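Hypothesis: this fold can be encoded by more than one sequence.
Test: take the structure tokens below, design a sequence, compare later.
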């Protein structure tokens, strides 16, 4: 171990970031500031989810900001990794050898939960890995990212849906995703029919294409959250919502994600799901300072 690595290890121990022996360890990787205030609040979202898991017995959590920790030792003993960050060309996993680093964790069965834009990796660099690790992903020029109210009338029986009631919510729900062939070892969790209004934008990398337009016209049900199992025993949870920070205040929306994080970490999900309460005051905490905001384009990211 180098002097720098020893220094980081001492700092991690001092901060309580390394888990007590025998406890399940969940590592949150929160991306940096992105989008206008209240949108893509990666750090605040991860800290909020972390606070909701604090009462779980034998579970320890740690949140790292800006997409990737400076010291590789933080992954030691990890049972699950949660990614909540920008995606596409800005995806923190597509920098340097990080995809390889995460792949080594996946090889030993570490769970993976991926939220919102972090589902979007490059078709030629990252998609193959995500289909293996996560079961599905966003693909530009195939998938779309409209803002719309999705209604989930029924939910399948699965540990991740325990205690989650049918609900509807306005968010940037991605759909027409890429999944493993035949949905092999993939369980759809949130499925709905996208309305015609989601196709109001012109074709583009994120806005539309002939294949998705045909699917919406035929009212093909779209998967926006799913669970997956890997051949080597690891688990994946994909969730395309999470654009608006305020939605973490919605009990069923939040519970599904908390359940999913526990499930990929191979922690038994409570019979009624993870119980948690989030107040308006808590939703205002830890928000990124984003400076003066310029007008945002009406399409794309």
């Amino acid at each position: 171990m180098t002097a720098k690595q020893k220094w980081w290890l001492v700092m991690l121990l001092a901060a309580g970031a390394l888990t007590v022996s025998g406890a399940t360890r969940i590592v949150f990787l929160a991306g940096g500031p992105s989008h206008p205030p209240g949108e893509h609040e990666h750090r605040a979202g991860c800290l909020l989810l972390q606070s909701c898991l604090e009462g779980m017995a034998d579970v320890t959590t740690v949140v790292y900001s800006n997409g990737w920790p400076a010291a590789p030792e933080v992954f030691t003993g990890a049972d699950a990794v949660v990614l909540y960050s920008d995606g596409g060309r800005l995806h923190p996993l597509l920098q340097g050898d990080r995809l390889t680093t995460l792949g080594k964790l996946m090889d030993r069965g570490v769970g993976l939960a991926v939220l919102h834009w972090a589902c979007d990796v490059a078709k030629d660099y990252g998609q193959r890995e995500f289909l293996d690790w996560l079961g599905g992903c966003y693909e530009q020029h195939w998938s779309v990212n409209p803002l719309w109210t999705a209604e989930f009338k029924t939910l399948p029986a699965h540990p991740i849906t325990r205690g989650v009631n049918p609900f509807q919510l306005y968010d940037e729900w991605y759909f027409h995703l890429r999944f493993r062939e035949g949905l092999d070892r993939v369980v759809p969790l949130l499925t709905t029919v996208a309305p015609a209004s989601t196709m109001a934008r012109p074709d583009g990398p994120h806005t539309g294409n002939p294949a998705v337009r045909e699917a919406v016209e035929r009212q093909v049900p779209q998967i926006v959250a799913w669970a997956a199992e890997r051949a080597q025993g690891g688990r994946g949870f994909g969730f395309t919502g999470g654009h608006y920070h305020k939605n973490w205040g919605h009990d069923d929306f939040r519970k599904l994600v908390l359940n999913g994080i526990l499930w990929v970490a191979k922690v038994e999900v409570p019979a009624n799901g993870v119980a948690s309460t989030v107040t308006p005051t808590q939703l205002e905490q830890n928000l990124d300072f984003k400076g003066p905001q310029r007008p945002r384009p009406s399409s794309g990211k």
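Confidence is low (pLDDT under 50) at residues 3-20. The radius of gyration is 18 Å.
Hypothesis status: open.
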